[in-house]
Amino acid sequence: MAAALERALGSVTAGEAGAAPVPVLVLGPAGSGRTSLLLRAALAGGGDGPRALFLAPSALPRLPGGDDGGGNDPRALQRLELRYPPSRAALGRELAAVGARPRPPGLLLLDGLERYLEGAPAASARLAALLLEAARAPGSPRPPAQVLAALRLPPPGPQVLPVLRRYFPAECRLRPQPGVHPCLRARLVRPGAPPRRWSLHFGPRGRLRVGPAEGDSEGDEDAQPDGDSEGYEDTQPDGDEAWG
User: Fold this and answer.
1) How much is the pTM?
2) Is the pLDDT confidence value at 127 over 90?
3) In this structure, are residues 43 and 95 in contact, taking their beta carbons and an 8 Å threshold?
4) 2 CB neighbour count, 10 Å cutoff
């Protein structure tokens, strides 16, 4: 499950690699590396990974590097298509056209989800449904694409996150580690499997180094708020160390 994200973090197993794709919601405050993590998932595997379509409301300043992330492999970059629909209507047109592509993507990534929402539960539900429908590509013999969508916390409305969770069974939380800069903890929760945790270290120009979670204890993150109100201050600034 969530094989694209786990492959990006260097820990997917053979059984998980063959499992059906599960949509993953990537959550974190400003500057927590959501964009870098999505791109690492797109480039993981070098030239042998799936074709990836990356959608965002504005152009990226650069592609991140990283140890074993695939960002330095030109074959990986050839698999990646970047599109920047500036509005929800433009995003809808992009998603509607996915199934008609001669070579549909095997990995569908949406960054800046909060900028396409208006804080209304109905808008969140419609956009999530469009995203998953594009991944399924009805009538196509290909298997569904894996979906990763990133949402900045706190969300744009009190009901946005509960609605999105109906469509995204798996969730990856990114949290700045207090007193350690620039380091974050990532926690992946998916149906039918125990949580997995990693420590993410950002270096110059967005380079991302992944390692095992340090000093983590069971249940410590479950006690954290869901991000609807407090608890997600912008403790990590945007910039060269971690962006998105």
Assistant:
1) 0.81
2) yes
3) no
4) 29
